Amino acid sequence: MTTENTWSVSEIQKAQLEDPDIRPILEKKIKSADRPSRQEIAQESPTTKRYWALWDSLHLKDGVLYRKWENDDGSSCRWQLIFPKSRIQEVLQGTHDSASGGHFGVMKTLSRIRERFYWDNLPADVEKWCRECQICRARKRPKTEDGKSVTRWTSAEKLSDRMPRFPCDILFGRPGPSSPNDDFNKLESRLESVQTSDRERVKLFKVRKRTHYDSGATDHHFKKGGLVWVCNPKQRRGPRPKPWQKCDGPYSVVKKLNNVV
């Protein structure tokens, strides 16, 4: 991006003086380095007042107004040219639309512009430019009218096989080949089919879960009088022997209740 380099100092200063929002600040900076009072700036535009709020960070270099911008930790600073509105489109095109721009997103485009330039409402202008870029919009998922996707179906049509009804349609009716009773019957049958499908999926999930559990289980044969160890992974309060054992025992089997216990 070489927009600033292609301009001479006189051209940049002339463009700033022609901008109605930058001119009052530039003229006052040239006359005096002291910050003007609020009464002196009261009649100016809101944009000029926002520039006035940045008075301490605005500086003149060869008669051109710059903003000294520092990062959060103060380790580095940049000199941002206060850019007039008449040339903003050139910067946006060179930063986003050009071959070197690469049609990056909002944050990356904004970061690249902030390295060289500054103007009021900069983030909103960058966001609007990127959102309205035809090439960037072509990369996203195409949409058609009425919120339909490329499948030509809305969410309401997928569920009820008809377009949604609005309050005015319910009150005054809606022309169409089907009656309200037919729509309700279609909706009822569709919901029943969805519920039936969900029940089958739940049953299939239970079978798969049980099969997975049974495949990892081992077959133990407990007999009366046999010795077993009881797993007790939870540590109890009080002193414990070291190393701590997760199983207690052995215990003697007194009675067999079932195949598990």
UniProtKB/TrEMBL annotation:
Main EC class the enzyme belongs to: transferase
Q: Which InterPro entries match?
A: Integrase_H2C2 (IPR041588), Retrovirus_Pol_polyprotein (IPR050951)
GO MF terms listed in the record are: RNA-directed DNA polymerase activity
Where the record annotates domain Integrase zinc-binding, the positions are: 84-141
Record-listed E.C. numbers: 2.7.7.49
A Pfam match is Integrase_H2C2
Entry's PANTHER family? Answer: INTEGRASE CATALYTIC DOMAIN-CONTAINING PROTEIN (PTHR37984:SF15), PROTEIN CBG26694 (PTHR37984)
Can you name this protein? RNA-directed DNA polymerase
The organism encoding this protein is Araneus ventricosus (Orbweaver spider)
